[in-house]
Write a structure and sequence with these properties.
binds NADP nicotinamide-adenine-dinucleotide phosphate, about 25% strand, 17 strands, five-stranded parallel beta sheet, single chain
Length: about 425
Amino acid sequence: MTEPLRVAIAGLGTVGAGVIRLIETNGELIARRAGRPIEIVAVSARDRSRDRGIDLSRYHWVDDTAALVTTGEADVVVELIGGSDGPALTLARSALAAGKGFVTANKAMIAHHGLELAEAAEAKGVALKFEAAVAGGIPVIKGLRDGAAANAIAHVYGILNGTCNFILSKMEAEGRDFAEVLAEAQALGFAEADPSFDIDGVDAAHKLSILASLAFGTAPAFGDVRISGIRHVLAADIAEAAALGYRVRLVGVAEADAHGLFQRVHAHLVPQDHPLAHVTGATNAVVAEGNFVGRLLFQGAGAGEGPTASAVVADLIDIARGEFGPAYAMPAGALAASGAADSGERRGRAYLRFAVADRVGVLAEIAAAMRDAGVSIESLIQRGASADGSVLVAIVTHEGPERCVAAALERLRGSQSLTGEPMWMHILD
Ligand SMILES: NC(=O)c1ccc[n+]([C@@H]2O[C@H](COP(=O)([O-])OP(=O)(O)OC[C@H]3O[C@@H](n4cnc5c(N)ncnc54)[C@H](OP(=O)(O)O)[C@@H]3O)[C@@H](O)[C@H]2O)c1
């Protein structure tokens, strides 16, 4: 058999240890598929003494991750440390500058620095690959970059954060509130001790911005993603959504048209007969619609040791075969600089929920604000007083420009009738 692909791995946590286990378990099969073996020539993490459930004595250990580039004989550096900057970015820059291929699962770094790294990889004619950075084990990057490469993509959207989906599905199944379910998700290991990147939508936004570049051929624009998470979703919202024929999901949506690139991550109402409504637990799913292929649905495990390692090693197999092209499916210089589209001009239906004081005239005040802003109400549900004496009012609007909904909420800002911040969720029609 020909020369092995020599690989150095930085970071031996959940994903790094998984990559080693996968290569050790399936090495022979991988060698047959790749046409050459994948050989781990060096590894690095913070704490050499930590038990990772794998025998590291057979691999060359380096204390300083930077040394994976300078002293090793690696063809490819695999970065599984995490973090948008810091040691991961330093390693990426030095590996690519040294002409090594680079594979990562790090969505935060790719979302912030992907273009720079793609340019560096192209300058040296080496691979930059990040399949595991979006939707874990699901080969959605390969699907868009290669399988759907012949299509103009109209939009790409999906459930990109397993933690949020786990929490929302559990709230839905058990009728419980967010804080309680989050605490349980943390105890079960489905949510981090600091869950903010997940529950506030940032992690999904990292992934969405990567998908948007691949789908539309636009330069990465993470800063243009409009982001909100699921902290403010109530069990009552989920119940009202169900009564109206919807489920609540955190959905990342990206579309590109003449107005520019539109990217958002928000809790949405998804019709119960839509494929995304049936994605439960920690699963991820991505929908892409191409002008010749039609609707594609990618679904599977969005995280976890095995699925994520599977995606990392798939990238290594591509490199071993010599099958890699530009990171974003076209040379970095060909990516269009697409401005952010004005969300106010977008049309859609909205779910609005208000907590209001239990007194006469409140509904009329809300209805007047809607009317004055040009928002037409399709349905309105009012539920009895809760423990704090406030009443929940849920409204579904007819389709209209989002700027009108924003204007209606602005009119109600500071109203003495509202006992809390209104909730606005878009409806995925
Ligand atoms: N976990 C998943 O399911 C998943 C899914 C998709 C993508 N990802 C991405 O994959 C990457 C790794 O995630 P993970 O879950 O495997 O993280 P993790 O379990 O926390 O592991 C991180 C590893 O990096 C090492 N490390 C941290 N700081 C370091 C430094 N300064 N120098 C050298 N090594 C350092 C740690 O060393 P010690 O072990 O010695 O402390 C640890 O081995 C992240 O970018 C993450 O976003 C993860």
